[in-house]
């Protein structure tokens, strides 16, 4: 088995593992009607400036390099597939990966905000996954907070001369986990505990999802590295076009 065949085999096995998990009827996206109108409006208003910036950034990226459309579409599909797979949790709820770290590393977090809201909109309408009234809250946690942290970690590790693939793994994994931290805080603000307030409620929400989300974050980090390795092998010119690979980098 040559190098290319081994690579295809690894990718096939990784996706087979993910798609082999049976989804449940609920997911970590905040569901329709779960937040009061004031919080729905609040998170929508907070997300709006990031979305405007994301639209400008996406438009600029495509204008500078038309070939980047293929990679952008791939990043969007990656987000859609991973965030649509709802994994049963041992706590009785369910969790899912986000897939946003990969796009943030390739194009920056602003572009991912647009990809994320498109994915969340389709999921809310077609899959009853999330909701239209909670779109602002879900967008902020999954398409803004997570990607910005993932991008920041990746850039910091790169400046520290850390191995690139390990940087990608850590950035994608922590970006995934941060999404759930933000979602837990959003839920805690909306439903504070009678005894410990917002903090106690946030700890409870984090405890519900942590047993499943930690291993899922690790899997997402590994998958992101596998995708990057595949792109470095078969789409090197496209990666150079978006500035991910430098001229003499292999």
UniProtKB/TrEMBL annotation:
Keywords: Cell membrane, Cobalamin biosynthesis, Cobalt, Cobalt transport, Ion transport, Membrane, Signal, Transmembrane, Transmembrane helix, Transport. It is a multi-pass membrane protein. One of its GO terms (biological process) is cobalamin biosynthetic process. This is Cobalt transport protein CbiM. InterPro entries: CbiM, CbiM/NikMN. Its main location: membrane. The gene is cbiM. GO terms for cellular component: ATP-binding cassette (ABC) transporter complex. The lineage of its organism: Bacteria, Bacillati, Bacillota, Clostridia, Eubacteriales. The chain crosses the membrane at residues 36-56, 105-128, 135-154, 166-191, 203-231. Part of the energy-coupling factor (ECF) transporter complex CbiMNOQ involved in cobalt import.
């Amino acid at each position: 088995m040559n190098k290319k065949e081994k690579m295809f085999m690894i990718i096939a096995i990784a996706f087979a593992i993910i798609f082999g998990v049976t989804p449940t009827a609920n997911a970590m996206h905040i569901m329709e009607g779960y937040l009061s109108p004031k919080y729905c409006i609040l998170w929508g208003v907070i997300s709006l400036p990031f979305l405007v910036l994301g639209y400008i950034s996406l438009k600029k990226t495509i204008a500078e390099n038309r070939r980047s459309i293929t990679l952008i579409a791939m990043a969007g599909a990656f987000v859609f597939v991973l965030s649509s797979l709802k994994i049963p949790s041992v706590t009785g709820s369910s969790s899912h990966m986000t897939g946003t770290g990969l796009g943030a590393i390739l194009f920056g977090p602003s572009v991912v905000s647009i990809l994320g809201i498109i994915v969340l909109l389709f999921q809310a309408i077609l899959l009853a996954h999330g909701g239209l009234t909670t779109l602002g809250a879900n967008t902020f946690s999954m398409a803004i907070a997570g990607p910005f942290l993932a991008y920041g970690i990746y850039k910091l590790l790169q400046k520290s001369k850390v191995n690139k693939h390990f940087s990608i793994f850590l950035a994608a994994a922590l970006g995934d986990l941060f999404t759930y931290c933000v979602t837990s805080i959003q839920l805690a603000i909306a439903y504070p505990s009678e005894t410990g307030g917002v903090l106690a409620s946030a700890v409870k929400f984090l405890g519900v999802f942590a047993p499943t989300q930690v291993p899922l974050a690790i899997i997402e980090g590994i998958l992101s590295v596998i995708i990057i390795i595949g792109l470095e092998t078969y789409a090197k010119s496209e990666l150079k076009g978006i500035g991910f690979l430098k001229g003499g980098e292999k």
